[in-house]
Write a structure and sequence with these properties.
Length: 429
C-alpha cells in the first residue's frame, strides 16, 4: 500500500481522523508495481497481470544490488496441478515445476475425516508436517513392529524408504499436510500402492500367499484407490493393542519443542539430534516478527527448501561471481536456495512470517555472516570493508559472537509532528 503524502495539520483538521487512524486511510491507494526505480525503467503499456505483479514486487522492480542471470527459485502451490479424489486432493512440486529443486520434492495433500491415503510405500523417504487438522498414521518397520499414532497441527512424521504406511483424516475437518521426499524427481504417481499391487498379482498366487479361497479376491478393485472414504477408526490405544508395537518412534511434536528465542522471532530445529529416525531430512520452523530479519547466512550441507505458511517476505540469494537475485514470497509459496548460497529472509509485512526450512540432510547446519565477522580479527574485518574512524568502531562493537538467527527491525525515529499527533490522540506510536 502506498500512502499519499498530506500534511499532519490537514489530517488533524479532519473530524474523522481519530477513527481513521486504525483503518485504511481514505488517501491510501493500492499501487501496482512497475519496472522502475529512480531514473531507471518505465511503466508497462502492454496488458498486465496486477495480482501477479503485487505478489512479486521485487521481481518487477528489483533492488539495485541484484545482478547477473540466475534460475528461478520460486514456485507457488497455486500453480501446481490438482488431483481431485473422493474426499481429498493432492498437488505436487517436483523438478518438473521447479527445475532447480533437485534434492527435494513436495506434495500438499488434503484428507477429509475418515478419508484414507491408501496403504503404500515409496522409493524415497517421506517427511511430513501437519498444516491443519488431525490424522492417524500407521507404519511397519523392517522387524515387523507396527507404529500407530495420532497427529495434529505442527507434528511431523518420517518414513524411511520402502517402509509401508497409511494416513487417515480424523476429527471434524480431517487434515491437510505437507509431504517432503528426498529426491527432486519424485512423483506421487510412482507410489507403490496396495490396491495396484494386488490387482497385478494372479489370484492363484494371492490364494497361496494369504491361504484363502481365490473367490475372496473377486471384489478387489482393478484400479488404484489412492484417496478414498473409509470408516473413522476407534481409539488409538485400542488399535495399538491389536498389533506388535514397534520399538522405533516415527513421529515428533515439532511445535511443542521449546523454541530458541531471538529479538526478532524464534526458531525450532528438528533433526537427528531430537528425531533420530529422520536420517535424510532436517528442518527448522521459523517465526519472523513484523519487519524482522532471518539473518544473512548460508547452509554448507544441503540446499534449503522453504515453505511459507503465512506472512510476506523477500529473499535475496547471492550465488558468487557477482550474481544475486531477489524473490518475493507469501503464504503457499515455495523457495529454493542452493547449498552455500548466501541469503536472508526479510519480513516485509505487518504480520509474522511463519516458514519451514527443510534440508536433505541428517543435521541442520548454517553459517552466520555476523558471527563469522565477529570471530575474525577486527583489523582484518575493517580492512576488508574499508571501515575507518567512528564507523569502524561502531560496526566492530555491534558484532555479536553469538548467533542471532532472527533479528528485530531497526527502531525508527519519528518526526516531531508525528509524535505530537500520537500524544494528542493518546496513541501508541
Amino acid at each position: 500500500m502506498t500512502r499519499l503524502l498530506v500534511s499532519v495539520l490537514d489530517e488533524r483538521r479532519d473530524p474523522m481522523f481519530p477513527a481513521r487512524l486504525n483503518q485504511p486511510s481514505l488517501l491510501t491507494v493500492e499501487k501496482i508495481p512497475q519496472p522502475s526505480r529512480g531514473n531507471k525503467g518505465s511503466n508497462i503499456l502492454s496488458p498486465q497481470n496486477p495480482d501477479r505483479q503485487k505478489q512479486n514486487p521485487d521481481g518487477i522492480s528489483p533492488p539495485v544490488t541484484d545482478h547477473g542471470k540466475m534460475p528461478n527459485m520460486k514456485w507457488s502451490f497455486t500453480d501446481s496441478h490438482m488431483r481431485l479424489e473422493e474426499g481429498g486432493w493432492a498437488r505436487e512440486t517436483t523438478t518438473r515445476e521447479l527445475p532447480i529443486s533437485t534434492e527435494l520434492a513436495a506434495v500438499n495433500m488434503r484428507l477429509e475425516a475418515g478419508v484414507y491415503r491408501e496403504l503404500h510405500w515409496h522409493n524415497e523417504a517421506e517427511w511430513a508436517y501437519i498444516l491443519k487438522g488431525k490424522c492417524r498414521i500407521t507404519v511397519l518397520d523392517v522387524e515387523g513392529g507396527s507404529f500407530i499414532d495420532d497427529l495434529e497441527e505442527g507434528d511431523l512424521w518420517y518414513f524411511p524408504t520402502g517402509f509401508p504406511h497409511s494416513i487417515q483424516g480424523l476429527g471434524e475437518e480431517g487434515t491437510e499436510f505437507l509431504l517432503i521426499f528426498d529426491d527432486g524427481n519424485f512423483s506421487e504417481d510412482s507410489t507403490f500402492l496396495l490396491t495396484d499391487y494386488l490387482s497385478r498379482t494372479p489370484k492363484e498366487v494371492l490364494s497361496k500367499n494369504f491361504r484363502v479361497d481365490q473367490r475372496t479376491f473377486d471384489t478387489l478393485s482393478q484400479n488404484e484407490k489412492y484417496i478414498f472414504r473409509g470408516t473413522l477408526p476407534g481409539g488409538l490405544e485400542d488399535d495399538r493393542k491389536k498389533v506388535n508395537q514397534s520399538k522405533y518412534r516415527f513421529t515428533h511434536r515439532m511445535l511443542k519443542q521449546t523454541p530458541i528465542k531471538f529479538p526478532g522471532g524464534e526458531v525450532r530445529i528438528t533433526d537427528t539430534k531430537n528425531f533420530p529416525i529422520s536420517k535424510t531430512t532436517a528442518a527448522a520452523h521459523v517465526m519472523i516478527n513484523p519487519h524482522g530479519l532471518r539473518e544473512m547466512h548460508w547452509h554448507p550441507n544441503a540446499d534449503e527448501w522453504s515453505f511459507f505458511i503465512r506472512g510476506k517476505a523477500r529473499v535475496t540469494v547471492f550465488a558468487a561471481n557477482g550474481n544475486a537475485r531477489t524473490f518475493s514470497y507469501q503464504a503457499g509459496d515455495i523457495g529454493i536456495v542452493p547449498k552455500n548460497n548466501a541469503h536472508f529472509v526479510e519480513n516485509i509485512g505487518d504480520e509474522p512470517v511463519e516458514m519451514l526450512e527443510v534440508f536433505r540432510a541428517s543435521r541442520f547446519e548454517d553459517f552466520s555472516v555476523e558471527q563469522w565477522l565477529a570471530q575474525t580479527p577486527a583489523t582484518m574485518v575493517a580492512e576488508h570493508m574499508n571501515l575507518t574512524g567512528s564507523r569502524k568502531e561502531e560496526f566492530l562493537k555491534n558484532l555479536s559472537k553469538e548467533k542471532i538467527a532472527v533479528k528485530p527491525p531497526l527502531r525508527k525515529v519519528k518526526s516531531v509532528p508525528e509524535l505530537r499527533v500520537c500524544e494528542e490522540y493518546e496513541l501508541v506510536c
